[in-house]
Amino acid sequence: MGPTTMQRLGRDLGNTRLTSWMGAKSGEVLQRVPVKYADTGETLYENPPEQDPSVTTAPTAAAKQFVSSPYANDNPNVEYEIDRKADHALVTVKILFIQQNRGQNEWMKDTKGRIALDKAGKRIPDPTFTQDIGTPKEIPAGDKRRSFIGAQVKGITAAWNHFDLNSKTVPKAGPPGPDGKAAPAPPPTPINLPLKFVAQPEYSLTAKGVHATIRVFGPNIDADRDGAHPVDSGHWYMNTKKNYGDSTKLDMIKTSAHEYGHLLGLQDEYFRSDDQTHQMLHKMGGGAATADKELDQNTVRRMVTAALMPVIEARMTDNIGSIAETFAKSFPTLRKQLTGAVRTTWADSGLRSGIVSQIEPHLMSKSMKHQLASVVDFQTGQNLSNLTRATDALAATSTKYLADLVLGTFSNWERSMNGSFKATGADGSDVKIRTSFSANVKEFGTTGGGKSEAAQLADSMIGGPGLPKIAPSTTLLGQLEEIPKRWSEPGKGLDSAYTPAVVTPQVTAAVDAAVAAGIFPKINGTGQLYIRLRRLIDSTAKVSANKAALAFVDGAVREKVDAQFSELKAQIETEVSSTLGMKAGALAAKGPPDPNVTAIATKLHAMLQAQQNKANYDPKVGEINPGTGGAGTDVRHSSSSVMSSNDISQAGFRSDLIAPVVGQFNTLLKKADEENFTAKVTR
């Protein structure tokens, strides 16, 4: 009985009856079918080419956009086979692994080996660059590449072990009984088939039934995405550490698992257009299918942030020096406060007695135990360099520290604004979407259509020289300038931040560390006791004073910076939501709408809309592959999956991801008495 007859019987009889009739056991093949269909390729949106240095004119907006770049596998068809077994389903891709060279030269060479130029003096691209050249050869037995291949194909099966196929039977009513009534149909029987994926290696050039061919390069060749040796579904490399960052065997398996997905007909999920990403959400179903506005909201919010960020950062960077100078003028007052606080704090009787009680049990000599209190009093009083400690502590609050503090807080705000978008599909699987923007968006607030509004927003929010002074100031720079004025007021200076309550826990921890190190039992004589305690107290005083000074300045500055950027975040959230006709989120702006934020959000939303075609969101239109000549875009997305970030954990797989495979299974292997199978990520 041939496979065609077996397949026909399976359709007619149903899987359960055929299994019983054939006496099939667990793991035995019931039906095996070949899969073959045209590979449609894919389009990714990559960075635009760098402008020729000889060109002096500014690049156009179109030249700054991400470029639609078509890709196709070496095999014009997607090919594999599916086995339906009694207790599971098996997808097998038979891969011929060979050795074959690739074109190394990016540019044509003349007879003397020099780069050839055309009549216009430009370099001539070599059409063989990155292409397979020369005669294919078998990889010899015992070659290191065979061991590498073995590890990769084993890893692929483990990496893709996440899916089950689920369906149920469609029972029919029984024949009519004596009363003429048909017997009721029995309840449907659930069907669960764990789905296994296999990459079956072949090494003979004459191997039959091969579905794909992969050239494998040994450890002496560096894979290079920008050179002659990019990794793809037709080319594997043992050495991907230098240019791809694969530092472990698991990293390489992740890469191979990703490329295996292409052999199944799956597309990349990185560097995709906004339309492609919306279509992906619709394919996922569930909440993702209705998340179009939410994705647009996240995208426009991030566009506004990207446009404003360089303007705000530049304004702060240009003026942070003057703020540092204002702070420095108050340092004599702060130094006087801290000098007195260090002296008073270390003279505290409770702090001193605490040091004595910690150390005394660990001294070996009664004489040293007797002298310990006086030594502690001396080292925490007369011998303590409180002025030095205060001076060193304030030196730590340098201009660089202040700049790092302000700009670091700004960076934290930026990260909070640039979080990934999350959607949940019909099967409960989540996807996280990260978004990047072209220079047109990043430069929108500096040289683009939002330049005027961004500058006005920076004036009102950050401030700067030449602007009218308003008291109390509402700008960030103005508020920072006013901070030192309060430090001379009672209870608001640095002395309020350096007290026994603050320092005692630090002293206790330092003494405990010295005890744990076994320092005190080793002390011989009063002289050593003086030296040890001087080092301990001096170092602790230095650390505690530095901490107090930094925390004092940090707290005062961060409060203002956080408040200002929290309000900007709320303004952006509110105005973007309003622009898209959505309700504002939980974070509402305190003040009235800022017209500059509103204008920038409106303009950037219009930019996004101009590049959208909502008719493409429908999965029924097929994969969106504009190919060469497709319009550029200013927004692109990448998702969290095995086909984007090489995530082979359960989180990297979704049921819609393998829809092409499930579709082939339903077309070729589903029985007449079964509902369509669906995939589910189960492990």
If you had to describe this structure to a student in words, what would you say it looks like?
The chain has helices at 3-13, 15-22, 144-159, 241-244, 249-263, 274-284, 292-329, 331-346, 349-359, 366-380, 386-395, 399-417, 439-442, 451-461, 476-482, 500-516, 526-579, 595-610, 659-668; strands at 29-38, 42-46, 67-71, 77-85, 89-102, 132-138, 163-168, 190-202, 212-222, 235-239, 272-273, 421-424, 430-437, 635-639, 678-681. With 683 residues, the chain is of the alpha+beta class. Strands 1, 4, 5, 6, 7, 8, 9, 10 and 15 form a nine-stranded mixed sheet that branches. Strands 11-14-13-12 form a four-stranded antiparallel sheet. It has a two-stranded antiparallel ribbon with strand order 2-3. Strand 12 (421-424) and strand 13 (430-437) form a beta hairpin. Mean pLDDT is 91; it is low at 13-23.
Provide key terms for this protein:
globular; 19 helices; alpha+beta; four-stranded antiparallel beta sheet
From the alpha-carbon coordinates, what is the Rg to the nearest angstrom? 35 Å
- Overall morphology: globular
Main beta-sheet annotation: 9 strands, mixed
Rounded average pLDDT = 91
Tell me the distance between the termini: 37 Å
Structural class: alpha+beta
Briefly say what this structure is:
By secondary structure, this protein is α+β, with helices and mostly antiparallel strands. Helices cover 43% and strands 16% of the residues.
